[in-house]
Write a structure and sequence with these properties.
The strands form four sheets. A five-stranded parallel sheet has the order 7-6-5-11-12, with helices on both faces. Strands 1-2-4-3 form a four-stranded antiparallel sheet. It has 21 helices and 14 strands.
């Protein structure tokens, strides 16, 4: 079935030709959904046609509307508001549209074809010196959701993770463990491995600050003290020994990282996310060093007297970017260069997108330019899905000071909040404990994911656990409950012997809430496309909330099971069933599960 916006655009081309004897390019015709406060389904902006009509906007809109009403069977009426032409479609059109999409369980989703692009999405990118925290949750949810939306739009998403498993921060945890742990392991103390290692990262910072304070007290200035503190000097030595492959250092590094990986896997499982491939900085940084040293030898890069290798980007309005330290050790840029090259060799991607916080905007701008200057043409297809900071109501979080809210703790808090709210409302009376716990989990994770993803990723946000679990607000549980209400009603219909919902006879006239619901159905395909192009899951989140609200209005204003006309009853049940399916599919794009009962 041809989309109505295409039908209307082609009709406007004919209208301008017949009314004003002029050719208008279809690209100049804008067809938009009519705003809620006005009557109509679609709106045409007529201002680009004034140069052909030589008339006022209102008169041009009036003449165009009259032509469309008389010549296009899908249009039954129109109105003009300040030069905007609002068109109302016939009930026959909406019926035909609904019948067309009703049998398609994947309505709105595109299938892969010869034009399908391969898009690599890197997200998570944790450090192995601490557990995943609230910031990582936003990162992971964005990466997973964007990947699912890209797939729904007909492209191939490759989900990858780059684990930052080397560097000075890793050595800090290792050094603190050596001095303080007395050989203890996570299993011995009954802790998740990532939490266990993270505690030693915090312990390093506490001891380091003590050493700085002592040196300052003895007359050293603070900058010197930071460099001369014993533990920092030892951490630097450890990093160099790691790069040189010293067995003792490498062995401890492998052991502690494996503790962390087991912890990460548990958290990823709780969040319901995963990856197609995991890269490790300890493996990719060598490729970066190799490429940088070859480019230095070939004269593409420069070296300072102390040995630092850099690239001069001042002509690009940037600065001199260091690519290797004077002692030959690698930086983040070193490994990102190596990872990007290896990743292209692995996947021959059409685009490589990095889900990383907005504090790294400059870094990825530089990465792209450096790779292009080193001769990699595909670097122009690197993109950065940037996101803002996420905080809790009581303020910022700092890993090294131990003030971060761990992802595991937050998930558990959400489950407990979901349990308290559900029990307070008495929604789960009569369920077994196992059933209740599974529903609490789905409500909790749905609340967490929806609250984070409904905010445009580029914006900073405050996550409020209590506010996110509200069965009446702009929340995941409200949308989940709408889905459950629909399933409950369909079950009752089945018990009444109403099974074949889609064999209703033609409806001569729809009620306004039915038209509004059909309008929301129409939007779903375009919403998926827009969310994919903009890499923005909040577009899906806001759509599914609006759909749930629209359905609840329909449910309260029109009888469904109590409708006396059997044909209308089946039609409204069919509308309800389709609403439930779109809600389920839209929430799935956000990584949110729906309970069948709650």
């Amino acid at each position: 079935m041809e989309k109505i916006d295409i039908i209307l655009k082609n009709a406007v081309v004919k209208a301008i030709k017949q009314l004003y004897n002029s050719e208008v390019p279809i690209s100049q015709i804008s067809v938009q959904k009519t705003r809620k406060e006005f009557e109509g389904d679609f709106t045409i902006v007529v201002f680009p046609f004034l140069r052909f009509s030589k008339k006022s906007p209102d008169l041009t809109a009036e003449e165009t509307g009259k032509f469309l009403k008389e010549n296009i069977e899908e249009v039954y009426d129109f109105n003009v508001i300040k030069g905007f032409l609002n068109l109302s479609l016939t009930h026959q059109y909406w019926q035909k549209f609904f019948r067309n999409i009703n049998s398609n369980k994947n309505y709105g989703f595109k299938t892969q074809n010869e034009n399908t692009k391969k898009i690599v999405i890197e997200y998570s990118s944790p450090n192995t010196n601490k557990p995943l925290h609230l910031g990582h949750i936003r990162n992971n949810l964005l990466g997973w959701s964007v990947s699912k939306i890209i797939e729904a739009g007909g492209d191939k998403a490759v989900k990858v993770n780059l684990v930052n498993d080397r560097g000075i921060h890793i050595c800090k945890s290792m050094l603190a463990w050596k001095y303080l742990a007395e050989g203890k392991t996570p299993k011995e103390v009954g802790m998740k491995g990532d939490h266990f290692v993270g505690d030693y990262y915090v312990a390093f910072d506490k001891e380091y600050k003590k050493q700085i304070a002592e040196l300052v007290k003895n007359g050293m200035n603070e900058d010197e003290a930071k460099n001369e503190a014993q533990w920092m000097k030892e951490a630097r030595i450890m990093l160099k020994e790691w790069e040189q492959g010293k067995e003792e250092v490498r062995s401890l590094w492998k052991t502690m990282n494996n503790w962390v990986y087991k912890g990460f896997e548990e958290t990823y499982k709780k969040l319901g996310i995963g990856f197609d491939k995991i890269y490790y900085e300890s493996e990719t940084y060598l490729k970066g060093k190799e490429v940088i040293l070859k480019a230095l030898k070939d004269g593409a890069l420069r070296q300072k007297e102390g040995g630092t290798v850099f690239i001069d980007l001042t002509k690009e309005g940037l600065d001199e970017k260091v690519l290797l330290r004077s002692d030959g050790t690698a930086l983040y840029m070193t490994q990102d260069i190596g990872t990007a090259i290896i990743r292209y060799e692995d996947f021959k991607f059409d685009e490589s997108a990095y889900v990383v916080g907005n504090e790294q905007d400059y870094h990825f701008k530089v990465l792209k330019i450096v790779l292009e200057k080193l001769g990699y043409d595909w670097a122009k297809n690197i993109s950065h899905i940037s996101y803002g900071m996420v905080e809790l109501p009581h303020g910022k979080m700092k890993s090294r000071e131990g003030t971060v809210v761990d992802a595991d703790d937050l998930i558990e808090e959400m489950i407990q909040t979901a349990k308290a709210k559900s029990e307070e409302l008495g929604k789960l009376d009569g369920f077994s404990e196992e059933e209740k716990n599974e529903i609490f989990r789905k409500i909790a994770l749905g609340a967490l994911k929806y609250f984070i993803l409904k905010v445009d990723a580029k914006k900073n946000m405050t996550f409020n656990p209590e506010e996110s679990i509200d069965f009446n607000g702009n929340t995941g549980p409200f949308i989940q409950y709408t889905y459950v209400r629909i399933q409950s009603m369909l079950t009752k219909a089945e018990e009444q012997g109403i099974n074949e919902l889609n064999d209703f006879e033609n409806i001569k006239k729809f009620e306004e809430p039915e038209i509004s619901l059909l309008n929301k159905f129409y939007d779903f395909e375009e919403v998926i496309t827009e969310a994919g192009e903009k890499r923005n899951p909040s577009i899906i989140a806001n759509y599914v909330y609006d759909l749930a609200k629209e359905y609840n209005r329909f449910y309260h204003e029109l009888p469904v099971l109590k409708e006396e006309d059997f044909n209308f009853k089946k039609f409204r049940l069919s509308l309800s069933e389709k609403t439930g399916l779109i809600i389920k599919n839209a929430l799935d794009l956000l990584g949110i599960e729906v309970p069948e009962r709650m």
